[in-house]
């Protein structure tokens, strides 16, 4: 019997709906162009409305990413065989081949910790807190149940927010080393990306309040946030980056305005995320410190097929 699947490949400004057969290499594409930039989060939510009703998987694909020919097939087959996996990615290879990324985690203060390596040494699928939105496969039914990406995020940390909710719904997020894609990274936004800096930092605090354990939230808000403001104020003066402190002030204003809304989205049981949080003592620690701790926990995160 011929079994078909529909996939959705999306970007913020353009949507490509791809239908393919698991028993055939033929792919049919339909493209839609929005007349407004809704950002990654809301843009992709709107794009999913174009997918056929019988679509079982959604593939969120950046326009600066190039998939290996077997990418879709490998990930869908893996998710078909492992029904407990809600979202997944393959190996992300930097366009110049210098590094690879397997997704990531967060540290004790909610900062994203991307698992970037010189080469793929991990031969088995591993559980990650978040898969990269540059080429992430998600179960369609689960995506709809979760309400999609948080539209107020616009860009950055949107996949961390979504994947946190995937875990809280008792599904897993997995990085699969059996297929790859190349990614230009930053190919859409160039130069000093203050817009990206603003949204990445602003949205990180939203995910921290929503999903981190309560003790981490309290320590982050009472100690890390004021310290971060002071550090950015000093950098703003030393580097003559007036925009830095202005944007950070806007972040504080946004967090104050959205604080009650973020609290309402908190869940009481965050235990499913605990093993995916890299314990870091100091709020001024660099990402390299968190990365250095990953090899000590990676064996506990190997995905055992269900």
Class inferred from helices and paired strands: alpha+beta
Please give the alpha-carbon distance between the first and last residues: 25 Å
- Residue ranges: pLDDT <50 for 5 or more in a row? 1-7, 19-26
| CATH topology-level fold name of the largest domain | Spore Coat Polysaccharide Biosynthesis Protein SpsA, Chain A
CATH class identity of the largest domain: Alpha Beta
Count of DSSP H/I helices: 9
Report the helical percentage. Answer: 25-40%
Strand content: 15-25%
Number of domains: 2
Q: Which features does this protein show?
A:
25% strand, 306 residues, 9 helices, disordered N terminus, Spore Coat Polysaccharide Biosynthesis Protein SpsA, Chain A, 2 domains, alpha+beta
Give a structural overview.
The chain is an alpha+beta fold and 306 residues long. The chain has 9 helices and 12 strands. Strands 1, 2, 3, 4, 5, 6, 7, 8, 9, 10, 11 and 12 form a 12-stranded mixed β-sheet that branches. Helix 5 runs parallel beside helix 7 and helix 6 runs antiparallel to helix 7. It starts with a strand and ends in a 9-residue tail after the last helix.
Summarize the structure.
Strands 1, 2, 3, 4, 5, 6, 7, 8, 9, 10, 11 and 12 form a twelve-stranded mixed beta sheet that branches. The protein folds into two domains: 4-183, Spore Coat Polysaccharide Biosynthesis Protein SpsA, Chain A; 194-271, no CATH class. It has helices at 39-47, 71-81, 140-145, 158-168, 194-211, 214-238, 242-264, 271-274, 287-297, and strands at 4-10, 14-21, 27-33, 57-61, 65-67, 85-94, 100-107, 112-117, 126-127, 135-139, 172-183, 277-278.
């Amino acid at each position: 019997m011929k079994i078909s699947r529909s996939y959705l490949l999306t970007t913020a400004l353009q949507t490509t709906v791809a239908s393919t057969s698991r028993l055939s290499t033929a792919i049919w594409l339909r493209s839609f162009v929005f007349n407004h930039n809704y950002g990654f989060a809301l843009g992709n939510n709107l794009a999913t409305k174009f997918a056929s009703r019988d679509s079982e998987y959604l593939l969120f694909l950046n326009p600066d990413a190039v998939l290996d020919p077997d990418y879709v097939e490998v990930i869908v087959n893996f998710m078909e065989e492992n029904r407990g996996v809600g979202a997944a990615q393959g190996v992300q290879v930097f366009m110049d081949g210098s590094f690879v990324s397997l997704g990531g985690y967060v540290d004790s203060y909610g900062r994203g910790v991307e698992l970037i390596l010189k080469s793929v040494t991990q031969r088995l699928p591993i559980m990650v807190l978040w898969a990269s939105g540059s080429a992430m496969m998600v179960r369609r039914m689960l995506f709809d149940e979760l309400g999609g990406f948080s539209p107020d995020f616009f860009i950055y940390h949107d996949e961390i927010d979504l994947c946190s909710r995937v875990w809280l719904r008792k599904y897993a997020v997995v990085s699969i080393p059996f297929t790859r894609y190349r990614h230009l990274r930053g190919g859409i936004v160039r130069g000093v990306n203050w817009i990206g800096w603003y949204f990445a930092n602003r949205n990180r605090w939203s995910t921290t309040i929503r999903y981190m354990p309560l003790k981490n939230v309290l320590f982050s808000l009472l100690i890390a946030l004021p310290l971060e403001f002071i550090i950015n104020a000093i950098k703003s003066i030393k580097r003559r980056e007036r925009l830095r402190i202005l944007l950070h002030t806007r972040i504080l204003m946004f967090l104050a305005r959205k604080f009650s809304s973020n609290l309402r989205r908190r869940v009481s049981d965050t235990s499913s995320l605990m093993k995916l949080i890299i314990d870091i003592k100091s709020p001024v620690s660099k990402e390299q410190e968190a990365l250095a701790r990953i090899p000590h926990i990676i064996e506990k995160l190997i995905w055992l097929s269900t």
